[in-house]
């Protein structure tokens, strides 16, 4: 299952945005209002929980400065990745798009598609808060 957020323009250089997204603590600012838990559990990992959903542990998997950051599920039970693709727009602005890729059975995919789509759209929209 592949989902994409809308592309969002942020008034920061691509390197500056890359540096902010490289620090997992900054993901708390991107979370939706219905967050029930956010906890940094290491330099490159955090756990978050949304109301009514199980907690998810994300780990930094790959960083390619200044254009790409890949977060992945720390558990193999639900394998997925969240990729931030950063494009330079100008010296002081960049565009970011989030791509979600997950391997779910048809039933699970049907259940999580709506909430995950809304979640990544919120993360992208909140990029301006960084």
Structural description of this entry:
The protein is α+β, with helices and mostly antiparallel strands and 130 residues long. The protein has a single domain, classed as Alpha-D-Glucose-1,6-Bisphosphate, Chain A, domain 4 (2-Layer Sandwich), CATH 3.30.530.20. 25% of the residues lie in helices and 43% in strands. The protein is built from three helices and eight strands; from the N terminus they run E-E-H-H-E-E-E-E-E-E-H. Strands 1, 2, 3, 4, 5, 6, 7 and 8 form an eight-stranded antiparallel β-sheet that branches. Strand 4 and strand 5 form a beta hairpin. The mean pLDDT is 95.
Q: What attributes does this structure have?
A:
Alpha-D-Glucose-1,6-Bisphosphate, Chain A, domain 4, alpha+beta, 25% helix, Carbon monoxide dehydrogenase subunit G, eight-stranded antiparallel beta sheet, 3 helices, 130 residues, START-like_dom_sf
Shape: globular
The CATH topology annotation reads as Alpha-D-Glucose-1,6-Bisphosphate, Chain A, domain 4
Mean pLDDT: 95
Element-by-element helix/strand order: EEHHEEEEEEH
How does the major sheet shape up?
Answer: 8 strands, antiparallel
Total count of strands: 8
Question: Approximately what portion of the residues adopt beta-strand conformation?
Answer: 35-45%
CATH top level is Alpha Beta
Q: Which residues sit in consecutive blocks of at least 5 with pLDDT less than 50?
A: none
* Class derived from helix and strand content: alpha+beta
Helix content: 25-40%
* Number of helices, counting only DSSP H or I runs of 4 residues or more: 3
Rg (C-alpha, Å): 14 Å
Separation of the first and last Cα atoms: 28 Å
Task: Return the CATH architecture.
Answer: 2-Layer Sandwich
Determine the CATH superfamily. Answer: START domain
Count of domains: 1
């Amino acid at each position: 299952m592949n989902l994409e957020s809308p592309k969002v323009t942020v008034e920061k250089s691509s390197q500056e945005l890359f540096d902010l997204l490289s620090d997992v603590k900054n993901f708390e600012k991107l979370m939706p209002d219905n967050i029930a838990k956010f906890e940094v559990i290491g330099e490159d990992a955090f756990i978050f929980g949304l109301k009514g959903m199980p907690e998810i542990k994300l780990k930094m998997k790959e960083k390619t400065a200044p254009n790409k950051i890949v977060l992945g599920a720390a558990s193999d039970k639900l394998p997925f990745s969240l990729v931030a693709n950063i494009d330079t727009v100008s010296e002081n602005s960049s565009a970011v798009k989030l791509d979600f890729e997950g391997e779910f059975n048809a039933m699970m995919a049907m259940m999580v598609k709506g909430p995950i789509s809304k979640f990544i759209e919120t993360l992208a929209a909140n990029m301006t808060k960084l």
